[in-house]
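WARN no homologs supplied; continuing
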Amino acid sequence: MSFSEVSERKQFASVFATIKLALRGEEMDYTTGSIRKAVVLLAIPMVLEMIMESVFALVDLYFVGHLHNSSYAIQAVGLTESVLTVIYSIAIGISMAATAMVARRIGEKDPAAAAKAGMQAILIAFVINTLISIFGVIYGTEILMLMGASPEAAQYGTPFIKIMMGSSIFIMLLFLINGIFRGAGNAAIAMKSLWVANIANIILCPILINGFGPIPAFGLTGAAIATTLGRGLGVSYQLYHLLNGRHTLKVAARYFLPDWQQIKTLSQVAAPAVLQFVIASCSWIFLAQLVATTGGDHGSAGYQTALRLLMFFILPAWGLSNAASTLVGQNLGAQQVERAVESVIKTAKYNVIFMLVITVLSLAGAEIFVSFFTNDAQIKTVAVEAIRIMSLGYVFYGVGMVLINAFNGAGDTWTPTWVNIFGFWLLQIPLAYFLAKTLGLGPTGVFIAIPVAETSITLASIVLFRKGKWKKVKI
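OK structure emitted
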């Protein structure tokens, strides 16, 4: 055997060992050792986790896209997802606060304080979600119509939105508990919980939508039931690992009692984190409504189809960027500021490479991807145009999401909040309205505004990252 063959075998064995370690499901200390290896160990399960999250949206879209009245079904699912982004925003915001605090305490070698912070975050989530769920169940039809759905589409989608809003606690807990595990350095458990949820969803979706044996066909409502059951199983998996006492975070019953000082600290970090994603979500809701009013049912359905595919491509990149959050949090806790900076730069480089590949795939394969999810020619035309235009901002978005996660991981949640106000409310919304309405470009104007805003957000984030305020935040 030649020297090159021996070398190749050793490299392959090393790669395989790294992947195996990343997927094992153990908490790790990322304040020492190779930064590149640390990024890879965190990124592999986080990317797979986000791929699983994006599959949720595509599974529903695939099966409802082939129902009778598919334009109504796709529109109902898409608009409901747009509304659910508010819940995603709250969940991600609280999750980021939990990740930052858990990671900081782990970096300080205080796992008991880390566990308590995580449980207090769950307590906050339960209170907030209860209020949102009740409102969504009562006013489901009105919400769809407010979003721009026609009366027929709103009526058709009412059972779907009510089930999804009523069961949104599973969304909240999936995001939050995964954030707790990521902060502790155990990204594999977060990934596996979404595997459980998605496998269940993939199995249940066709059965409950189309019927199977004695099980009747529930149509669009079946998609909501399947997604809810899948997420419920994922949360059950999370809770089992969180509460079994076998990991670094050992939960005691007393941690669930309200600790008002801890809740205050979490809220101070979470409030701007929630706000930054609510700002983004409100912008996306406005854009969805603008497309629905200027492009009609087919324009709205095409845009929602494109967004689902967009999220399928972007969520893995978000998973990679999540590595920056954990690395920054743990290294700041260990007083290793320069290591935190280097971790962000390396993560951003990897994300740029990934997003370059995704940009090429989106530009070249848009028609093929869209054809897989709908047979309607009008929907296809809109969706293909949307994907090709929005993909022009992918590379900038890849850098921006890493920097946003770095700020949040440091507990500096106000910086990305101000950046989002600038990018979404002061730029994206006015520009989209101007192009779509004033210049009469319709949905195309909305599609153009999206990469322009994302690029501006990234440039602003680079400037603020280099200023270094995030290095000095105490939590």
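The chain has one domain: 30-472.
OK
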